[in-house]
């Protein structure tokens, strides 16, 4: 039986635009393909939730916990994700274009083929994240932690990498220039694209 909150049934394909679900315990709930535009999910427990292909555009996810949640191909454009936890979440193919993700926790998250173009990821924790073929063009990764991240084939054209931690990161076939790497942190485990000479440290 579908869970009800404020008289609204929470189930796949549910129409929940503008719903007030703040601080609710929605752990492991199935809201796949749900319409959640403008929904208030501030502080909600969404650990392990299924939000595959859900429309969360302009929703408030601030302070929510989405650890290990599935958000494959979800629409997160213009979403408030201040202090949101996405550790271990599956965000493959999500659209986060232009979203502010400063200091966000995305440790070990799956962001394969995600659209992160022009996002602000200042001081974000993306350690161990899977960013294969992700679009990070124009993203601001100043001070971000990408240690041990998989960036194979990622588009980093015009991305800002000032002080970015790339220790152990795999950048094989990634799109970027040596000029962008002037101030990054790296070590002997870092794999740079063919033809890109790492800067002297």
> Which H/E pattern describes the elements?
EE
**What share of residues are in beta strands?**
under 5%
Shape: elongated
Low-confidence stretches: none
Counted by DSSP, the helix tally is 0
The radius of gyration is 17 Å
**Helix vs. strand class:** little secondary structure
Q: In which order are the strands of the major sheet placed?
A: 1-2
Helix content: under 10%
Average of pLDDT: 95
Q: What is the number of beta strands? A: 2
Oligomer state equals: single chain
Biggest beta sheet summary? 2 strands, antiparallel
Distance between the termini: 59 Å
Give a quick rundown of the structure.
This protein is 0% helix and 3% strand. The protein is mostly loops and 201 residues long.
Element layout with pairings:
Elements: E1 3-5, E2 8-10
Antiparallel strand pairs: 1-2
What are the main properties of this structure?
little secondary structure; two-stranded antiparallel ribbon; 201 residues; single chain; elongated
Q: Could you explain how this protein is built, in words?
A:
- With 201 residues, the chain is largely without helices or strands.
- Helix content is 0%, strand content 3%.
- It has strands at residues 3-5, 8-10.
- Strands 1-2 form a two-stranded antiparallel ribbon.
- The radius of gyration is 17 Å and the shape is elongated.
- The mean pLDDT is 95.
């Amino acid at each position: 039986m579908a869970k009800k909150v404020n008289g609204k049934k929470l189930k796949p394909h549910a129409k929940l635009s503008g719903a007030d679900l703040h601080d609710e315990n929605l752990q492991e709930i199935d809201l796949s393909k749900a319409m959640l535009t403008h929904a208030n999910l501030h502080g909600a427990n969404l650990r392990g939730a299924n939000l595959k292909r859900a429309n969360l555009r302009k929703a408030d996810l601030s302070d929510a916990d989405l650890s290990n949640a599935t958000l494959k191909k979800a629409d997160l454009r213009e979403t408030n994700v201040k202090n949101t936890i996405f550790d271990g979440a599956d965000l493959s193919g999500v659209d986060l274009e232009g979203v502010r993700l400063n200091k966000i926790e995305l440790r070990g998250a799956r962001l394969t083929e995600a659209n992160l173009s022009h996002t602000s990821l200042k001081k974000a924790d993306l350690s161990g994240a899977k960013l294969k073929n992700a679009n990070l063009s124009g993203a601001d990764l100043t001070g971000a932690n990408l240690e041990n991240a998989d960036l194979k084939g990622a588009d980093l054209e015009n991305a800002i990498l000032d002080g970015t931690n790339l220790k152990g990161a795999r950048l094989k076939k990634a799109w970027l220039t040596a000029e962008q790497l002037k101030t990054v942190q790296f070590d002997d485990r870092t794999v740079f694209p063919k033809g890109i000479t790492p800067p002297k440290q």
